[in-house]
Structures are given as C-alpha cells and as structure tokens.
Amino acid sequence: MRHFSRRQLPSFWSLGAVFIAALVLLPILAVVWIAFHPTDNIWPHLLSTTLPRYFENTLVLMVTVGALSAAVGTGAAWLMVMYRFPGAVWLEWLLLLPLAVPAYVGAYALVDFWEYAGPVQTFLRDMFGWQTSRDYWFPDIRSRGGAIVVMSGALYPYVYLLARAAFREQSGASFEVAQALGAGPIARFLRVGLPLARPAIAAGVAIVMMETVADFGTVEFFGVQTLTTGIFTTWLERNNAGGAAQIAGIMLILVLALVAFEKISRKKNRYHTSARQQRPVSATSLTGWAGWGAFALCFIPFLIGFIMPVGVIGWHAIVNSDRWVDPDLFRALSNTVLVGASAASVTVIAALFMVYGVRLTGRKLPRLLLPFTTIGYAAPGAVLAVGILIPVAALDHIIADFIEGTTGWDPGLLLTGSAFALVYAYSVRFFAIAQGAADSSLGRISPSLPMAARSLGRTEWGTLRAVHVPLIRGSVATSLLLVFVDCVKELPATLLLRPFNFNTLSTRVYEHASLENLEDASPAALLVIGVGLCAVLILARSSRRI
To answer: Which residues pair with residue 285 across a beta bridge?
Structure first.
C-alpha cells in the first residue's frame, strides 16, 4: 500500500515539467483573459474605426509577402538543384545570407538609398537637370509596396531552404520519365517538381507569413498600420491595455490559423519514395545567355536582401567611424549580451529539464503539455509583451507592497524595473528552438546507456550529468547560440518590456533610424547583422547534409 501511494505522487521531474510549461503558456492565456475582461472595453470603437484597416493591411502583407517569397525561394531552389551555371556554387549558400539581416534594418537601408535625398534620385536629378520631385516620377519608397519588397527580400530564404531540400530528395528517374514523355523544363517543374515539393513550400510560406504578422520595425518605418502597430498605438498612446490585448488576440488567432494551415497542408499532401535507393537529380549545365540569365535571377534576391542593406549600413559605419566609440553603443552592446545570454541560458536549461523530465516520468500531463510550449515561437513579440507585462506588473506591485508593509522599505518595482520581464519574454518566445534541439538530441541517445548508468547506482541527476549532457553538448551549444541570436534581433517585445533608459542593439537601431539618423544607427545595425551571420553559418553547415 505504501508503494502504491508513492507511485501516485508526482515526481520532482514531473512537477518541474508542468511548472515550466505553465510559465511558457501563461502569457498566451493572459492575453486571452485580458481580452475578454478589459477594464475599459473599446472593442466596438476599434471595430468601427481602426481595426478593419489594421486587419486589411496585415492580411495584404501576409498574402503578398508570402506569395513573393514563395516565388523567389522556390524558383531559386529549383535553379540551384536542377541546373549548373556560373556562380551557382557560391550562390547556393549566399542566398541564405539575407536571414542575417533583420527586415527593419533592410527597411532603413532601402529608404536611405532610394528616397528623394538618397544617392539614386540625387544622381538622376543631377544627370537630367531636374529641379524638384514634380519634374519626374519615382516610386514611393515609404509605402506598403516598399514594405512588401523589404520583407520578401529578408524572408524568402525560409522557403528557399525548405524547397531546396525537397527538390534534392526527389528521384531523378521521375524527371527523366517526364522528359521522355515530352515534358519540357517548365512542364517538369509544374507537373513533377512543384507537386512533390508542395508540403515543404507550404511550411516555408507559413513561417514567412508568421514573421510578417510579427514585424513591427519595418511596417512602422514605412507608415503601414498593421495589427502590430495597432497594439503599440492602443497601449502606449491611448493607454488602453484591454484594447491592446484584444488586438493581440486577433493576431494570435491569425497566427494559429497559419499554423493549422501548415499542418493541414502537410497532412493532405503525402508523397512517398521507393524503398530502393533512388538516383539523385542530375543537374543540367547552362551556358551562354541561359547560364547568365539563371545567375541574374538568383543574384537579384541576394542583392536586395543582403548586399544593399549591408552596403548602405556599412558605408555609413565606415564614413562615421567616430560613432563606434560612443559610450551609449557600448552600453547597448553590454545590455544586449547580458540579457541575451541570460535568456538563452534560462531557455536552454528549462527546455532540457522539461524534455528530460517528460521522458523520465512518462506521465500524461507533462507529455500532453510539451507540444503546446512551442506556441510561443509562433506568437509575435508584441502579443507576448501584452501577456507578460500586465500580469508581471501586478505581481510586482504586490511584492513591493508586501515588502514595504513588512519592513517599511519601498524596494520599487523589482520585476518590471529590471530586465526580468525581457528575459522572460525571450525565453517564452524562443523556447521552441531549445525544446526542439533538446528533444531531438536526447532522442538520438540509445536507451541502454542511461539504463546502464542507473544500474551502476547513478541517480537521475547523475545520469543526466554523466551520460546525457556530454553526448548532447554540441546540440545544446548550437541551440544556445541560436536563441541568443534571435534575442539580439527581437524588436517589438524589447521595445515594450525594456526598463526605462535601457537600450539594446535592436532598440538603439530603431530609435536612431526612426529619427532619420542612420549614422548613429549603423554601428549597432552592423553588430546585429554580424550576430545574425553566426546563426546563418550554423544553418548552412547543418544543411550541407540536406
């Protein structure tokens, strides 16, 4: 009877896994609660005034950026796998580099280069003798179209990477049969390659759309009012947290619909290969105009997504080299490293604990909650900020009142007055990265190894330290770096949750660039891009086997 009672009690690992899952899901649940219980319900006002415009712009951006990224990413992947042309060996990896450039940095660079006072229009006026903007026509850069181009240039690599892997996995025999039946290059792409790669392309497009919904810096700079900018306006300018939570709820529904779309598209499109070893696709050599045309088609996205923003930002950073010794830049850098490293460490340790605890206990509740902890990665940073700041601020006041009532000393706001909320938001936002890495790396360990350690007297903690950690050290280090890089690039959550007078590299870039001061923004922007390149190099190295 005593043994039965002890088995029924949840273990430390089980309780810990449930507690971590609760912390990860709390911001999402808080957004839902606040949206349904606002202090001042302005939902009818939002519905009749600004919300339709926010929703329309967000929907248009989602669809157009998703479609353009799908066309560019899929087309580039098809050319890279099916053909060999000048520069293809280099472009295969260079096409991934725009992932290192945050979309908002690309927006600042594009406007600086193409706007009325930029070098392009200045050169045209000098060359043709034009005096004012009324003497000639030039596309409006600060528009919804400009935002679409910038975000597509930054996000197409998600589709490119997944589509390239899907095309490589296809059998060369199927294309040879189609060619023997008279199908030309376009017909082989439309009738054979594209249908087989559709699930991977749909997954990439879903990621692009989620990133588009979550964007703030780009749309705010281009003056496009979306659901994300609506959260900032409603919360910070109108001082209505309930209305911000209601807009955040709409964003959450939109993102969940995208996740469901991606899952359904994969379920309905299942394609299987033969059990026999299949022959890989044989690349066709393109020479002459055809080869250089293929090179140009693949080079243009790389030019827009990487060379142009890095070139413009780099030029400003070189010309204004004195900005590199600004004490505020070093403060922003140290804040970024401190907060990013703290969040990455907390996230990876919590994810490893939870995954190990779920595998160890095998109880239903932790196992059921584990998949839901990845929802934070899909939720935009602005949504998480709404769900974190309001509950944490309430808890902060309770703690401060208790300490003051007990000791007579007012400690101030311990949680929201520090970087605690920021670290919490980063951990929730990027928990899926660490959890996925921990789950896959632990799954590769043979069960006999921990069983042998336990039979030799090792405890559960001892087995984790002596057996699991040494074997998964590489995966843990990679996930640690990836989480850190994403923390450095995150802008909306940082703007809403940072303490007063606390800047990171991303917020420093935003503050200076939004004031048209790209000279002071350029060093911080280059540092953000440099950190992003680390993640892209890891991604490129891991995709060599794909």
So the answer is: 84
Place of tokens 């300490």: 403
| Dist. CA 262–CA 206, nearest whole Å | 6
Residue 338: what residue type? L
> Which pair of structure tokens corresponds to residue 365?
């509740």
Q: How many Cα atoms are found within 13 Å in the side-chain-facing hemisphere of 294?
A: 24
pTM of the model: 0.86
With a cut of 80, say whether residue 515 has pLDDT above it: yes
Quote the pLDDT of residue 269. Answer: 54
Kindly list the structural domains of the chain, giving each domain's residue range(s) and its CATH number in brackets, ordered by start. Answer: 320-546 (1.10.3720.10)
CA distance 255 to 265: 15
Burial of 331 (0-12, 13-18, 19+ CB in 10 A): middle
- 358 vs 6: CA distance, rounded Å: 18
Q: Which amino acid is at 130?
A: W
Q: What is the total residue count of the chain? A: 546
pLDDT band for position 310 (cuts 50, 70, 90): very high
- Taken in order 270, 274, 277, 280, the sign of the CA dihedral is negative
Closest CA to 345 of 440, 523, 513, 484: 484
pLDDT for 8-21, tens place per residue?
Answer: 556 778 888 889 99
Structure tokens at 359: 């595998």
Q: Residue 469 pLDDT more than 90?
A: no
